[in-house]
Amino acid sequence: MNATALVLGLATAAVLCAQTPPDFSGVYYPIAPFGRFVGGPAAGASQRQGPPPKPTASAPLADGSRGRRPDEPSLTTEYMAKWQMISKTLIAGSSEFDPTAKCLPPGMPAMMSMFYGMEVMQNKGKITFFSELNDALRRVYLDGRKPAQKVLDDPTYAGYSTGHWEGDTLVVDTVAIRDDTFIEGFTPHSGEMTVQERIRLLSPGLMEDKITVTDPKALTKPWETVKTYRRATRESGTDELREFACPEGLSEAK
Question: For the domain bounded by 25-42+72-233, which CATH number is listed?
Answer without folding.
Answer: 2.40.128
